[in-house]
Design a protein that fits this description.
single chain; 476 residues; five-stranded parallel β-sheet; 13% strand; elongated; binds adenosine-5'-triphosphate; binds magnesium ion
Length: 476
């Protein structure tokens, strides 16, 4: 069961946090007066504009009247539930964020609230620190989401590449380039290491082109032997070779007026290179076994993770073909070159897989993010995506913790310290030793978190409540 205090539902690294979204319009709904007042006082002191409602009916009236950024609502209220209020609020404005307040005993309803669209929850009794952190995090995430949407809108591409995640300068450059080159119809060469999103970008280019209603056909040139590749691409006529019992259209014909994506173009044989050159130069081709020339109205986008210029120098790739393909190069940065995108990508994948697996999660712990920030990601975004899918599947707590990351990613995590290698000959007091270690860690975490217990608790992977217990126990 999710414990209430492994906080920091951060899909954002510290560096990614823009200044706090300063003043939000918050609607507080609770039938308990003391809670309403507490929320009102704390949130106003944080600089927000707070409106309070005593029940669902009043809340709906406010929502009709005023734009609201954040709804903080009790779940159980006499007239309607907080989740219903949130649903109604989202129907009016899908951008609104929601925090649900649950009775301590019912973590299930909290999980249910997350499933139904709440951004986070608070379990009673909560303390002021906890409230502030949860609210700030939810508002920050909302802000980031909005910036992303605005950014893409500014680039004029809300739909076409909403699925390509990235806010780094390098990726913004890629977005701009896609926008510029997509409508031109030119041949494009997408380069980048494995897993950097070359196919994703090729599809985005197609979707932003005049050909977007026609097929996008992908062919992996590295996966097929030469003869098969040829008949796949150009088709064949009956009797062209043993087994060719009927005429078969090749992908170039299937993709007519659309786009053919030639993946791993660097793997093609010299013979195929000649044939491809012909398609690119003359826009004509022959089906295997046929003398007839057919017109090819297709756009070609090629991709490779090899250095084609090097291959040309080594005479392993035709220079003339290289120039035909490399009309407009689009180079995708490796993930190492855009580390600032890691939290955003990781958050995106956690959302994707937690949705798919029906496992509501709040996000990624800071420690897990720190491991990911240090790691080199040789498999780039694909490796990150796989790591997040695995982590979502394994995670038992509401936050992705370092333990759920693959061994390679968290290798640099600090090892357990202070364990005596052997027992002294005259024995020793284990319980006291353990208490001592415990006390030191609790004190250190408290200090590192500048006294904010929720943060300190998270650092040690424990619930707020357990942490509070230890603080009392050791009189810290
Ligand atoms: N910027 C991104 N935003 C979201 N998902 C991404 C991004 N880049 C890559 N991915 C995801 O990572 C995976 C790998 O992407 P893709 O297949 O496009 O990489 P590739 O460069 O073609 O790799 P390879 O060279 O190994 O074929 C896909 O699941 C893709 O959806
Ligand atoms: Mg690929």
């Amino acid at each position: 069961m999710p414990s209430n205090a492994q906080r920091q539902p951060v899909a954002l690294a510290e560096s990614d946090r823009a200044e706090r979204p300063s003043r939000a319009r918050v609607l507080v709904v609770d039938d308990e007066r003391s809670i309403r007042e507490l929320l009102g006082i704390v949130l106003r002191r944080e600089g927000h504009h707070v409106i309070v409602a005593e029940n669902g009916g009043q809340a709906l009236a406010v929502l009709e009247r005023e734009p609201i950024d954040l709804l903080v609502s009790d779940i159980r209220m006499p007239d309607m539930s907080g989740v219903e209020v949130l649903k109604a609020a989202k129907a009016r404005n899908h951008d609104i964020a929601g925090i649900m307040i649950t009775a301590f005993a019912s973590t299930e309803s909290a999980v249910e609230a997350l499933r139904l669209g709440a951004s986070d929850y608070l379990a009673k009794p909560f303390d002021v620190d906890e409230l502030k952190i949860v609210v700030a995090n939810v508002l920050e995430r909302r802000q980031l989401r909005r910036e992303n949407v605005l950014l893409k809108r500014a680039l004029g591409s809300t739909h076409a590449f909403a699925n390509i995640i990235g806010r780094s300068e390098a990726m913004l450059g890629v977005f701009r380039l896609i926008e510029t080159v997509a409508p031109t119809g030119s041949t494009i060469l997408v380069t980048g290491e494995s897993g950097t999103g070359k196919e994703l970008v090729a599809r985005a280019i197609h979707c932003n082109s005049a050909r977007h209603e026609r097929p996008f056909v992908a062919l992996n040139c590295g996966a097929l032997p030469e003869t098969l590749l040829e008949s796949e691409l150009f088709g064949h006529v009956r009797g062209a070779f043993t087994g060719a019992e009927t005429n078969k259209k090749g992908l170039i014909e299937v993709a007519e007026h659309g786009t053919v994506f030639l993946d791993e173009i660097g793997e093609t044989s010299p013979m195929m290179q000649v044939k491809l050159l012909r398609v690119l130069q003359e826009r004509r081709f022959r089906r295997v076994g046929s003398a007839e020339e057919v017109e090819a109205d297709i756009r070609i986008i090629a991709a490779t993770n090899r250095d084609l210029a090097d291959m040309v120098a080594e005479e392993r790739f035709r220079e003339d073909l290289y120039y035909r393909i490399n009309v407009i190069p689009v180079r995708l940065p490796s993930l190492r070159e855009r580390r600032e995108d890691i939290p955003l990508l990781a958050g995106h994948f956690v959302e994707k897989y937690s949705g798919r697996m029906g496992k509501p999660l709040r996000g990624i712990s800071k420690d897990a993010l720190a491991c990911m920030a240090r790691y080199s990601w040789p498999g780039n975004v694909r490796e990150l995506e796989n790591a997040m899918e695995r982590a979502v599947a394994l995670e038992q707590s509401p936050l992705i913790l370092p333990e759920s990351l693959p061994e390679t990613v968290r290798r640099q995590a600090p090892a357990a310290a202070g364990v005596p290698a052997e027992i002294p000959s005259d024995g020793f007091d284990l319980e006291r030793h353990v208490r001592d270690i415990e006390r030191r860690y609790i004190a250190a975490a408290l200090e590192r978190a500048s006294g904010v217990k929720t943060r300190a608790a998270e650092m040690l992977g424990m619930s707020f409540r357990s942490f509070r217990y230890y603080v009392k126990k050791y009189e810290l």
